[in-house]
Design goal:
By secondary structure, the protein is of the alpha/beta class. Helices cover about 30% and strands about 20% of the residues. The protein has a six-stranded mixed β-sheet with strand order 3-2-4-1-5-6, sandwiched between helices.
Length: about 160
């Protein structure tokens, strides 16, 4: 069985004229990331791999989650290919994961995340909001063979306020 925890980066700032990849979280994003992280801890297994896009806002979101779930920040794997908004690229990266890992926590971007959870989960979500958390479970022993799975849990900031 494989478990995939997809987390869309929290709300980013548009105040400074930066390249997209360099935009940081804004104040609301920081608060929402802490809120969702503290409410997802009970669903996170004891062992997992944490992957993250190279975008600053995604890295900051991953660090907030890591601090809340007591995961060593230096163990986060930052992957250039996760800086994508395309479902096909996201799927390719996920399916490349080593089968030694049963559980993967992945921090990424929309539209890739929403399209992925709608394609591979059994619940249509339509829009994963910033700082949104979606747990998908697959009845397979191979990441390369994941297909339709079960949407086990969603946690969105607006449902926690």
């Amino acid at each position: 069985m494989k478990n995939l925890f997809l987390i869309r980066h929290a709300k980013s700032s548009w105040e400074a004229p930066l390249r997209d990849i360099d935009r940081p979280l804004d104040h609301k994003g920081i608060i929402d990331a802490h809120l969702v992280a503290s409410n997802c801890m009970q669903f996170i297994p004891s062992t997992y791999l944490m992957w993250c896009s190279l975008a600053k806002r995604t890295q900051e979101t991953a660090i907030i989650f890591a601090q809340n779930i007591l995961y060593p920040i230096e163990s986060i794997v930052f992957k250039e290919e996760l800086y994508t908004f395309d479902i096909n690229q996201l799927e390719k990266v996920i399916k490349s994961c080593s089968n030694d890992f049963e559980n993967v926590i992945l921090f990424g971007h929309n539209d890739a995340i929403t399209n992925f959870v709608d394609k591979f989960g059994d619940v249509f979500i339509g829009h994963v909001p910033t700082a949104g958390f979606v747990w998908l479970q697959f009845e397979t022993d191979s990441w390369g063979e994941i297909n339709k799975g079960k949407t086990k849990k969603t946690i969105f900031p607006k449902n926690l306020k």
